[in-house]
Amino acid sequence: MKSAIAALLTVCAFVPATSQAAWHAIMLSGDDSIDNFDNSRVVLGGLLANKGLSLHNQHHLNSQFPDPLNQRDDQASLLGLSRSFSQLNINPKQDACLFYVSSHGKHGNGVYMKRAIDGELTPSQLNTALNWSCGSAPTVVLVSACYSGQFVQPLHADNRIILTAAAADRPSFGCSEDQEYTFWDGCIISQFEHSSTWEDLYQNVNQCISNKESAMGYPASKPQAYFGKNMRNLKLDFGAQP
User: Fold this and answer.
1) Please, which residues have CB within 8 angstroms of residue 222's CB and are 6 or more apart in sequence?
2) What domains lie within the chain, and their CATH numbers?
3) Which interval of the chain is the signal sequence (predicted)?
4) At what angle do helices 198-216 and 183-192 cross, to 10 degrees?
5) Which DSSP string corresponds to 145-181?
6) What is the pLDDT of residues 129-184, one digit of tens each?
7) How far is it, in rounded angstroms, from Cα 80 to Cα 91?
8) Cα angle for residues 19, 25, 28 (degrees, 5° grid)
9) For burial by CB atoms within 10 Å, which of 144, 179, 195, 202 has the most?
10) Nearest to 34 by CA among 112, 98, 126
11) Alpha helices, DSSP H only, in the chain?
């Protein structure tokens, strides 16, 4: 899968850049066994749009399709993900990237992607894709899954913000049919409008998660964050120049 995604993403080098500064996002729900992942992706996409990240610039991918031979651009498959990365059309000098994924986590092997060849998206694969498509552009990565802290170190870069739902060795919670969203996604959604910067959002979400886990007697998931030196105090305003 590593070589396949790298080969498919090389087309990015030949795509003309956009003429105006803009944020571009890939929004991915990796599994359809429960509705939580899709619910979060759709609602968060609307919140991003309210903050200035045009729906036109959001590539939404889901795993809910009945026929794997009938490929569509919105499928969370290797082909769908590669197409979305290649269509970002990022000019690193003026544009910015956001990548969001909500799914089950695989301990030491990234996040579960039901329609991917290997059934996973690993930190190294995501880093390769971001390097090809976003390069040095300001980039925000949100990973909602158990063990998602494993994405922090491999994705370190001065131009990136990385927020994860849990530490690399910790589960996160809310992956059940009695929940509308996973705990972390629900906290992202509830705290989004009350946060002015990404650092604010991280702190607010951590408090929200701590309250939920304490109330239900769950062990701490310990959400993680990394703020590259070029991304400090970045406002949650996608209409502004990043």
Assistant:
1) 149, 166, 167, 170
2) 2-11+22-227 (3.40.50.1460)
3) 1-21
4) 130
5) STTGGGGTGGG--TTEEEEESS-TT------STT-SS
6) 999 999 999 999 999 999 999 999 999 999 999 999 999 999 999 998 888 999 99
7) 22
8) 150
9) 144
10) 112
11) 2-9, 36-50, 78-86, 123-133, 183-192, 198-216
Is there a contact between 12 and 85 (Cβ–Cβ < 8 Å)? Answer: yes
Q: What residues form DSSP beta bridges with 77?
A: 115
Query: CA 134 → CA 44, 45, 95, 99, 177, distances in Å?
Result: 21, 19, 9, 10, 35
In a 13 Å sphere around the CA of 48, the CA atoms on its Cβ side amount to 28
- The CA-atom distances, in angstroms, between 14 and each of 88, 139, 227 are 12, 20, 30
d(CA 118, CA 81): 14
Lowest mean pLDDT segment, chosen from 7-16, 100-109, 224-233: 7-16
Tokens representing 149? 């802290």
Structure-block tokens of residue 12:
């990015």
> 24 in helix, strand or coil?
strand
